[in-house]
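New to this. Help decode the following:
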Amino acid sequence: MSDSRYALIVANDEYRDEGLRRLLSPAKDAVALAGVLSDPRIGGFEVQVARNEPSHSILMRVDDFFADRRPGDALILHFSCHGLKNASSELFFAATNTVPHRLASTAVPADFVRRCMAACRARCVVLFLDCCYGGAFSQGMGVRAAGDANVLDAFAGEKLGGGRGWAVITASNSMEYAFEGTALTEGAEPRPSVFTHALVTGLRTGEADLDEDGRVSLDELYEYVFDRVRRENPHQTPSRSVDLQGDLYLARSSRRRITPAPLPGDLRAAVASPDPYTRRGAVAELRFRMGSPDLRIALGAREALLELARTDITSIAHEAGLLVGEVALSPSPTVLEFGRVPQNSPPPHRLVRLLGPPLARNCVPHPEDDRIRVRERQDALEVSVDTSRPGALSGAITLRGPAGESVVLVTADVVPLSDRADTPAPPSPKPRRDDTPPERPVAHRSASRPAAVPATGREAPSAWVYPRAPAAALAATAVSAVFTVRAVLEPVTSGGHLADRVGDGEFWDEARSELDRLTESGMVADAWIGLLAGAAAVVLASVTRRGLRAAGGAGRNPGARAVGRALPWVSGGVYCLILLCSLVLLLGFLLSFLAERFL
């Protein structure tokens, strides 16, 4: 491509004459096309933009643009405006001061542009005309042709330019409309026209590089734009007139067609071997080569595995197919939800990582909506959305590469400025179950206030529980022990005395008198007191443990920690005492029953 590259973009969307309808596209067209052409990674043009200027200013700009050029220069002139014709079917380009019935003095003659191109010494000149031709108006379209405008004929004739040639590409022929994408209504948001949008998209994404050689030629760009415009609007047919020698490359492209490298001789022989074990060994080697950072080597191995998967025996074909499936396009995430975005705010960005070996990460993104912007980064894609136009956005980015295709869904809702106050704040992320809330530093708590009681669903015990409850539990345990020992010792002593009288003829008389003595001595009353005291000790011990857990003090106060360790032993002893009291009471009742029954 030439080192000297210049572009002039003429965009007029505001007209003083009421008969010329206001266009919505040109301003947006100028910004979009200028950005792509001036990008050093794409066009590398030195770009000038003339927006909403009068006819005399545009005439001077065009004259200066073509003058004093060198034979090695490449030039692009883009018109986006109304195209009008006079009674003699001469073509004019409308400026802000254009009066439809005074075209010769208020508009830019197409013949003037043609003569400037013919006198230019530049190597090649390309003229893009994204214009609406005619003089009648209709809802939903720019301008309707009222006859044969002979757009391309206006630039035919003698050779244009002193270099290798020229090209004129127009958005529509003489009897069609240059649509702006949507119906033109008052207050509608500006958006690029179908034609210019196709130009910008083809150059920015590299999709116009049809042969994937890293360069976009004029022929490739026209074929891409023609197909894109016809697909979006069958009523519009781009046309061209070209007189060029050789190919003219307008832009660079990031797309590169990968040529598979041939397999080494020994590996190729192993793949073709009649021995299935040899071929199985070749499959393992091909898998290793498919992960190579050299994409040519990786693609050659992948194609060999695909061939084995199609033609080999079942076991080897199955293994080869699985290995091919391992190297596939794997974007993460596959869904991007931008949520509600204020209009004209800085575009939000999301990162889509490309996983897998180098061959799987090699792909070209194709956004289906012009509001989705994709910037390629190393092993990732940076995705953003255009916030200039309000409304819901739901589109997709199709990723295509040598390892297949994949799709990333993109959704957003661009909210008009008037609705920003109604935009709810984004919800806070819900904590996961395994998330542990951070503990507030102790230094921020007041020394005179206890630590906050954690929410357990139950109220913490009242102030008397701690530290009075432990003392009360110990006292009740001691009372239970004393009365239980008293209730147990007397029957044990009497039992030992009666054991010495077994076999004596007076044993039963002695047993009855001993039972009467035990009953009169208050053994049963002692057992009841021990039982009730033990029950009170268990209750107080349980309340104390609950208070310690609720207050959270067992881990900080040494005394509370000691009580917490002792409480299980105290409670266990109390339970044993209650059991012993119950046995004593049962024994007393049994002796009383036997005495009354048999003695």
Observations:
- The chain has a mean pLDDT of 76.
